[in-house]
Amino acid sequence: MNKEVQLEAFRKGIAQFVTFNDSEWEIFTPYVSFSILSKKEHFAVEGKVCDYMCFITRGAVRYYHIKDGQEITGYFSFENELMSAYKSFLKRTPNTNYIQALEETSLVMISHQNLQQMLNHPILALKMERFGRLIAEYYICCYEDRVTAFITQSPEERYISLEKTAKDIFQRIPQHFIANFLGVTPVSLSRIRKRTLLQ
Amino acid sequence: MNKEVQLEAFRKGIAQFVTFNDSEWEIFTPYVSFSILSKKEHFAVEGKVCDYMCFITRGAVRYYHIKDGQEITGYFSFENELMSAYKSFLKRTPNTNYIQALEETSLVMISHQNLQQMLNHPILALKMERFGRLIAEYYICCYEDRVTAFITQSPEERYISLEKTAKDIFQRIPQHFIANFLGVTPVSLSRIRKRTLLQ
DNA sequence: TGAAATCCTTATCTTTTGTTAACGTTTTCA
DNA sequence: TGAAAACGTTAACAAAAGATAAGGATTTCA
To answer: How far apart (Å, rounded) are the C-alpha atoms in residues A179 and B151?
Structure first.
């Protein structure tokens, strides 16, 4: 996929937040860069400050923590979604988790430095503030749902609703990663699946 | 507490996000209003769109869902914190949970309509976009930590870290609400407390 | 002030999850 | 291609959590 195509996908993907007219887009695009992660390559690691906010044009990544030497996967991002070690990127603090490509993954990237420059750019500033606000608000809503699921649902109920809303994820992501994401061990998810199949 | 005092507390409380100079503040303040919730009064209920974003100058509230006729408390907010049915307020969709005062609670409020006016105000716009962005980013970081706790920690570990970071909450909030917040039943939290005391 | 409601603990029993290990299948990659 | 790694399932046992009910203390509020 060449850069023009990726930029178009990016422009379309962020249109839910903010739309740039052609002259704004011309100012905007020089601030972005491109990268490809090979499978299993890390985009972010514990202890380092994350310098990029990304848009995935192809591929998938997982976010995981290491606790007692064990990897625990907390989240996934796929093509046409944003990806970053958000907290580290925003606060400029060392990252506390890892982000790793599950497949070969293509990225459109904005560095923190370039984002600051755009936030100070006379023409782009207001739109970029709004862009940042709407992205953050979007993720707050996602997080709200996710926390609500942990509070109000059992692991089995969370599995069932994932199965309903994103069945294809099971064809694409190893099941033991999904288990972590649901808040249980891989063994437990295997049992839940058997249980719910029988019912 | 009179309005002047509350406004000062508000101004100080949001200084972590954005600071207004005196002339900006003079434009800003007419857009805010005040309210008092008596104990057990609801600020937000399921099915209604939340029209206000608030700053608590005194008191405390809990956020809860009703599932199978049972109330499940998911979060709390206290004085000098922001409070809103955020998702409903932002998306203008019916709220899916309840917010109720745990004590008599004083609020400084901004209506959605007034917020939109400020976002269109020539002088305030940029600062308000930034304000909104920084608030949202702040809450994203909070949510990130909360989800991480559910993924990587057991209920007992979550209890222990709450006990470390916010011991005073146990003096102020009924324990069965805290149990829900930690993702367990009240009976289970009682057992966890006994267990961790003995160790 | 006194009855009702709220709240925490404890006990009992059931269900679910965690832990560890083993096994067979599939995938990976040198 | 072939050995190693990764993966999902199952079993067995231990630990934890859910559900329900009962009892006693505290708080609420008419």
So the answer is: 10
**Verdict on whether the full-model pTM lies above 0.85:** yes
Q: What is the pLDDT of residues A15-46, one digit of tens each?
A: 999 999 999 999 999 999 999 999 999 999 99
Please report, rounded to whole angstroms, the spatial distance between the CA atom of protein residue A40 and the C1' atom of nucleotide C29: 13
Supply A187's token pair.
């063994």
Angle between helices B175-182 and B155-165 (to 10 degrees): 120
In this prediction, the residues of chain A whose per-residue pLDDT falls under 50 are none
- CA angle, residues A37, A42, A46, in degrees to nearest 5: 155
Sorted by sequence, the CB contacts under 8 Å of residue B144 that are 6+ apart come out as A86, A87, A143
What residues of B are in contact with residue A132 (Cβ under 8 Å)? 133, 137
Query: What is the pLDDT, as a whole number, of residue B91?
Result: 92
- Using CB atoms, pick whichever of A87, A132, A180 lies closest to residue B133: A132
| One-letter amino acid for residue B66 of the chain | I
Whose tokens are 């600051």? That residue is A116
**B57 and B1 in contact (C-beta within 8 Å)?**
yes
**CA-to-C1' distance for B192 and C23, Å?**
37
How far, in Å, CA of B136 to CA of B115, rounded? 15
For residue A153, count other CB atoms closer than 10 A to its CB.
17
Q: Which residues of A touch B (CB under 8 A)?
A: 65, 67, 72, 74-75, 86-87, 90-91, 96-97, 125-126, 129-130, 132-133, 136-137, 139-141, 143-144, 146-148, 150-152, 180-181, 183
**pLDDT of residue B1 exceeding 80:** no
d(CA B102, CA B94): 23
